[in-house]
């Protein structure tokens, strides 16, 4: 992490731009449209009219007036960050727009009404059954991907099967539109998860349903980009294009995602494990021994580990990415296509690992669109130590709700 000393200077004027203005794109020259006139806007502190000045080693440059000029996501991509293609720049501009709309929806005083308007059938234990908020987020993203004209296939956790959007779209997008939404009434952080592949042109001759499914079941090793968006005290888009993991924070005063965490490197070890400890007695022996060992400070890292569990995958993973340790669900619960692959790609690009308890996540070939598996994400040394205990996958469901 870069360090910087921050000072605040009041300013009278700052750029105003609608948060919900849809991207204005010229298909012939998308990069030229974004970057012919590089932006000079300043990141604002909490939207309160303060200019941030930085002294020390940071990712920002200091302008002639002593203020700090931060780089937006569009500028980062437009200047060739991660060898990003023009087509991917266009796609991300539409993802930005969708996620800003979802962030506003999640923060709305009416979101609890949306969440409670769903009534499950009597006696239902399907906690993952879609709520209206999930569906609204899914529709927002679908609309944005259609408008981008850059996506051939969208496969979502909320849909039974993939949706074919455009024959000439160069990308395939798999996603969980609103992870953690079942806890949204309590204002617990939520998130969106995206994985992006190239369309398999060799399948273009196949029927639509078949080529849509096969494009969506690509191995994680073929990901060209992935990201999650965390909706919390800040809205953060953490992304990789295959050359490091970088996080951008939404500046609500300008509507821009600002580069705040360049080149994230997860610590080799952490001191935090994230799992539902209430299920301890249902765990396999290896996992119980591992947790017992590290929280007593008797593991390879001679410090006592602490438990931190939010029960929101994006939030637990985000903390793990920054602080180190392990975020895990040992049951066959999380989805390989929509959650495990995109987050494992981000973890590996930050120097971490994603595992099912035995194998590297990205090495697994999906065979079903909604395929579930155990998931362990985090610091490389912690993941290796966990796997050394052998029996860490919980293969039985003792009857509690999922």
UniProtKB/TrEMBL annotation:
SUPFAM superfamilies: Carbohydrate phosphatase
Alphabetized GO MF terms: fructose 1,6-bisphosphate 1-phosphatase activity
EC assignment: 3.1.3.11
Annotated Pfam families: FBPase (PF00316), FBPase_C (PF18913)
Residue ranges crossing the lipid bilayer per the database entry: none
Keywords: Carbohydrate metabolism, Hydrolase
Residue ranges of every copy of the Fructose-1-6-bisphosphatase class 1 C-terminal domain listed in the record: 266-389
Catalysis performed (reactions): beta-D-fructose 1,6-bisphosphate + H2O = beta-D-fructose 6-phosphate + phosphate
Gene3D superfamilies for this protein: 3.40.190.80, Fructose-1,6-Bisphosphatase, subunit A, domain 1
Family of this protein: Belongs to the FBPase class 1 family.
PANTHER family documented for this protein: FRUCTOSE-1,6-BISPHOSPHATASE-RELATED, FRUCTOSE-BISPHOSPHATASE
The name this protein goes by in its record: fructose-bisphosphatase
